[in-house]
């Protein structure tokens, strides 16, 4: 691959005679000269992560995993997840033992919806098990929504948590690495 022609802009400098006014209003000239410091620049081997040994950029390879015969596609079985609503379950005493149940719908690729009901602690347990099972893939997991002792039953907080849990589940279910794991299947079918 040959370097593209680079155009540089040279500004006129004032002449030794001191014609500063003329230099300030002069138009810039265009040239196709490559600056000399670009020609002398050499890469060291340690910095050539995206370059082949002959100095040319390595091609980027793209893979299509949408084909039904692709191994990654066979692992995926869900289309999307939505958290439709939540129910606050009261405890035995006022303010003690109350919790929230999240009503989720998983749309499968086969077309049938799957309804699940989970507590936040079950989502948190799933997150911890995924981190333990896939320590190399922690960076591909979305941030898990935090706990709040003070506002845990406030509608605004619950709406934000609903969106965050929905995003978390979609990212997990639509990732081929996590979708086929026993950890996720145990979460969904228990």
TrEMBL record:
InterPro entries for the chain: PX_dom, PX_dom_sf, Ypt35_PX
Membrane topology qualifier: Peripheral membrane protein
Region (Disordered): 1-32
Comp. bias intervals (Polar residues): 1-13
Annotated PX domain residues: 80-190
Keyword Membrane recorded: yes
Function text: Recruits the lipid transfer protein VPS13 to endosomal and vacuolar membranes.
Protein name per the record: Endosomal/vacuolar adapter protein YPT35
Organism: Ophiobolus disseminans
